[in-house]
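Thread amino acids onto this structure.
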């Protein structure tokens, strides 16, 4: 079928996620046909470096035949069975064991879901159940952060702090409260990064006192806020947050959907920041995105209560721990271990990207270039000296994103913040290519703005 025919059908029948349906109809979609390594290919014959690993998920890169074989073998053996009640199957059990080996030491259980959003719905259920079992049903409030993304189901969207989603979403899940994010470049430059990190932790304590110190059940956050703009918190932030949560006996939920599975150079972002979460939602890189699977890693404190005191937990999904998805996820983790992918990010590729990415800070359009592991961001500014931002109506980030795409690089824009999170199997040479393409796109953006 020709591209134009596919585009016409797409326009006629397909409502894309996070898309202005009408604008899509006018422009027509780019059709991605195949992919290999870190490159995707489209129906026009273009090869594009996927600087976003799909949606932050294709950690092992495209075209891994071992994953295809794991899927087909499992499809032949047992294409489906569930884990409800008292049944299970080998892939789910083996994956659970592997995850608990890789997780922080106090984490020894996992509850499987089909996605990251479902994982966060599960978090909400577990947090509320835990405090009810502990005889503290008044602990209902969950504190999250502005601009956080925790999924698109009603619970995920309510936990998240994306204002446009809240505005469209109708009544939200009640008793979720959002505090400021530790986004130094965007919101904290009147203080040093370290002071600002502490200010943001103090905002959590202030909110706890406002809501009532006995009423707060949990705090949820990503180690590094991903979809919000690849926001690495100042070094003072997490230690101060940990102190606040311990003071008021509040559960810590660390959303590892993006940061898990090597993105920051550790198996989990929690290990990078020395966090001991009670609950860790996971998805994406768990299967390198080859098949949909997610879950919640459950720390001993919550797990023991749910197991010993909980009785039946009325919650689960038809595809919780789907055997084919679990088999692929297990193979994915085994390959990552065998190839030392996570160590490669920590010791080699992450530091290499940091050095190369930092060179973009010299560009006249860039106010800050930051990275950690294989996640990076560029803050585009109108005035380099003052760091002043562009008028939002100019949509400079989207302009730069589109220029990138046309010239062979997927970079994401969040407002005027440009983001990368390439496959963890990218080579040093491909990092050079990525940085060169980004620099060219910045040059071209500057030219277009000057017109
Ligand atoms: N949590 C975080 C931090 C995410 O980035 C995402 C997706 O981008 C989700 C949860 C939701 O995951 P899913 O899209 O698999 O439902």
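Threaded sequence (451 positions):
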């Amino acid at each position: 079928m020709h591209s134009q025919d596919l585009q016409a059908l797409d326009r006629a029948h397909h409502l894309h996620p996070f898309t202005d349906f009408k604008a899509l109809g006018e422009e027509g979609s780019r059709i991605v046909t195949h992919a290999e390594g870190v490159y995707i290919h489209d129906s026009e014959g273009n090869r594009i470096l996927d600087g976003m690993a799909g949606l932050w998920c294709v950690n092992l890169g495209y075209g891994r035949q071992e994953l295809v074989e794991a899927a087909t073998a499992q499809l032949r053996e047992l294409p489906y069975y569930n884990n409800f009640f008292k049944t299970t199957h080998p892939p789910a059990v083996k994956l659970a064991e592997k995850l608990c080996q890789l997780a922080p030491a106090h984490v020894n259980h996992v509850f499987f879901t089909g996605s990251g959003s479902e994982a966060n719905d599960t978090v909400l259920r577990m947090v509320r159940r835990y405090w009810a079992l502990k005889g503290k049903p008044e602990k209902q409030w969950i504190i999250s952060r502005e601009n956080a993304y925790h999924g698109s189901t009603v619970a995920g969207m309510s936990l998240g702090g994306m204002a446009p989603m809240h505005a469209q979403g109708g009544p939200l899940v009640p008793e979720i409260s959002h505090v400021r994010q530790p986004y130094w470049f965007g919101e904290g430059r009147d203080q040093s990064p370290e002071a600002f990190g502490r200010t943001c932790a103090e905002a959590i304590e202030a909110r706890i006192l406002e809501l009532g110190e006995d009423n707060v059940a949990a705090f949820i956050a990503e180690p590094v806020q991903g979809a919000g703009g690849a926001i690495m918190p100042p070094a003072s932030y997490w230690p101060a947050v940990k102190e606040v949560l311990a003071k008021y006996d509040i559960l810590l939920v660390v959303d590892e959907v993006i940061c898990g599975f090597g993105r920051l150079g550790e198996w989990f972002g929690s290990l990078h920041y020395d966090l001991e979460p009670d609950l860790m939602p996971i998805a994406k890189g768990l299967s390198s995105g080859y098949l949909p699977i997610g879950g919640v890693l459950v720390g001993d404190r919550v797990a023991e209560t749910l197991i010993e005191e909980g009785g039946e937990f009325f919650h689960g999904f038809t595809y919780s721990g789907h055997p084919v998805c679990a088999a692929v996820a297990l193979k994915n983790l085994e390959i990552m271990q065998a190839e030392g992918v996570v160590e490669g990010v920590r010791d080699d590729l992450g530091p290499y990207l940091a050095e190369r990415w930092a060179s973009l800070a010299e560009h006249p359009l860039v106010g800050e270039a930051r990275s950690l592991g294989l996640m990076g961001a560029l803050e585009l500014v109108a005035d380099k000296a003052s760091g002043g931002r562009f008028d939002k109506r100019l949509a400079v980030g989207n302009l730069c994103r589109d220029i990138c795409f046309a010239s062979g690089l997927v970079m994401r824009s969040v407002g005027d913040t440009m983001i990368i999170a390439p496959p963890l199997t990218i080579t040093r040479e491909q990092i050079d290519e990525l940085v060169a393409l980004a620099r060219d796109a910045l040059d071209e953006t500057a030219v277009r703005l000057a017109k």
